[in-house]
Input
Amino acid sequence: MSTDKFFYEIPVLSSVANNMYNLASTTPNDQWIDYYAFKAIPVPIKYTVDSWWRRLYDLHPFKAGIIKIDENTYYDWHIDTDRGVGLNMLLNNWDTSHCLFNPKIQRGESVEIDNMTDKFIELKYKPNTYYLFNTQMTHSVYNFKDTRYLLTIDFFEDRTKLNYNQLLEEIKQERWFEQQLNKEQNDT
Ligand SMILES: [Fe+2]
Output
């Protein structure tokens, strides 16, 4: 099954993943706030972020944050309440955590006896790599070892105003990540 309707890998590597990981791993526990089922810290837009975020932010304002879950923890099948689309980068645990999509379970359905076993699709996060994420497809996370940190962007436009397919088309057409990099190269 094609994975395009679940996630899209941004084909330009991030240059800030290490900074983000350092920020996350050195932030004391008492500074993490509750955010849905996670603990989170905000990442100010002025923080050293990848340059193409500026263009994205101008068109679709967002807040950015790092969310964490503990080892041996799962985040069960769900569809995001408000978000139509997210932009994620996993900062560690590339091999010891798993993010799965379930193509069958729809909003409002739970796992019943007749759909207890079925195929899943894994988003196998790679280091330094962003993924556009369809938060309206049922997904779950299993984290086996060590605290897992994920950089995630939450757009102010909710799922009624901005969805995955819309942003995917824009991103494929406009390719902001390349334009920004080219501009920087020309500037230097
Ligand atoms: Fe989610």
About this structure: Residues 78, 80, 135, 139 surround fe (ii) ion (CB under 6 Å).
